[in-house]
């Protein structure tokens, strides 16, 4: 009987030790996962900030207007089409890689879509859209306001 009780006691102590050490290992894994998750979140935030800074830097540093061109949509010279009945000026704006908000604004003014390139450029900067201009070919016309033009050239539609 004494041996049986001793064996049960030793078994309980061994089982308790096993449970104790296995629970510490599980909580250690959970702590490691939480730490890695926090690191990933921090790195994603840094990446987003860096991408935004890069977009702004590309916009500011690239002032080559040669990347923005007008495409003729009629026989009218200058890349624009004038609707005689309503006086609306239409143009196809082509934005290529490396284009910035200043060159896009100047092209829109040159085509007669907007009256003042500096005002539109300032609007894009105020709306934090200057670094979000998308490469592409866009149909624009003189009836569009700054908000609509901004939506078109930043969303790639």
Count of helical stretches: 4
Number of strands: 4
- CATH homologous superfamily descriptor of the largest domain: Endolytic murein transglycosylase
Strand content: 5-15%
Describe the protein's architecture and organization:
The chain is of the alpha+beta class and 157 residues long. The protein folds into two domains: 61 residues; 91 residues, Dna Ligase, domain 1 (2-Layer Sandwich), CATH 3.30.1490.480. Helices cover 58% and strands 14% of the residues. It is built from four helices and four strands, in the order αβββααβα. Strands 1, 2, 3 and 4 form a four-stranded antiparallel beta sheet that branches. Strand 2 and strand 3 form a beta hairpin. Helix 2 packs antiparallel against helix 3. The radius of gyration is 32 Å and the shape is rod-shaped.
């Amino acid at each position: 009987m004494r041996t049986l009780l001793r064996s049960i006691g030793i078994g309980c102590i061994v089982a308790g030790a096993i449970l104790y050490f296995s629970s510490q290992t599980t909580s250690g894994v959970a702590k490691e996962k939480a730490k890695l998750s926090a690191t990933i979140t921090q790195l994603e935030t840094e990446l987003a900030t860096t991408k935004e800074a890069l977009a702004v830097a590309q916009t500011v540093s690239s002032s080559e207007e040669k990347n923005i061109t007008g495409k003729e949509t009629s026989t009218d010279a200058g890349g624009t089409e004038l609707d005689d009945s309503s006086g609306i000026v239409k143009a196809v704006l082509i934005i290529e890689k490396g284009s910035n908000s200043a060159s896009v604004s100047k092209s829109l003014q040159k085509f007669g879509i907007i009256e003042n390139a500096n005002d539109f450029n300032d609007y894009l900067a105020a709306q934090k859209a200057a670094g979000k201009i998308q490469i592409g070919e866009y149909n624009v016309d003189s009836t569009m306001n700054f908000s609509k033009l901004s939506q078109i050239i930043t969303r790639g539609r």
